[in-house]
Amino acid sequence: MSDEAQVTEVTEEVAETEDDRKIIRNHVIGSMVVGLIPVPILDLAGIAGFQLNMIRRLAKAYGIPFNREKVKPLVASLIGGGVSIPIGSAIGSLLKVIPVVGQITGALALPVSAGAMTYAVGRVFVQHFASGGTFLTFDPEKVRAYYAEKLQEGEAVASAMKA
Q1: For the chain, what are the domain ranges?
Q2: Are 28 and 157 in contact (CB under 8 A)?
Q3: Residue 15 has pLDDT above 50, yes or no
Q4: pTM for this entry
Q5: Is 41 left (phi over 0), alpha (psi -120 to 50) or beta?
Q6: pLDDT tens, residue by residue, 85-142
Q7: DSSP secondary structure of the chain
């Protein structure tokens, strides 16, 4: 597949494997649990760590070399484009400094948004890797609409897991 084909917008989904689903599901759950950490900002750092580990595991499954320092900006750019959820996550994290009410609100809101973001990131990278893409050909701008679609799907998935 040519480099040009690898960076075009997602028009057709590829089938994920059972391993892909397992990796994503486990990291969604982990992100949701980390979202319960009562310490503001520490929870967001833990969620980012889970997302990077998930991408590392997916890359390994597809035989793609992983470099944490090169992948972090790609993920930040991808997530930063879907502004509403990341801002909501940051607010949910910061609310935890308010005794009782803030901690309860943060504990209710952050796990679902953390799970949704992790789910969407995982699905985007599975789609990219399964289509023959690598980190060198990954263009967050080209997959932004797909990420937004998977983010909405991820909210439903995370909400169901929380229940």
Answers
A1: 16-162
A2: yes
A3: yes
A4: 0.80
A5: left
A6: 454 454 555 555 445 445 555 555 678 889 999 999 999 999 999 999 999 999 999 9
A7: --HHHHTSPP-SPPPPPHHHHHHHHHHHHHHHHHTT-SSTTHHHHHHHHHHHHHHHHHHHHTT----HHHHHHHHHHHHHHSTHHHHHHHHHHHGGGSTTHHHHHHHHHHHHHHHHHHHHHHHHHHHHHHTT--STT--GGGGHHHHHHHHHHHHHHHHHHH-
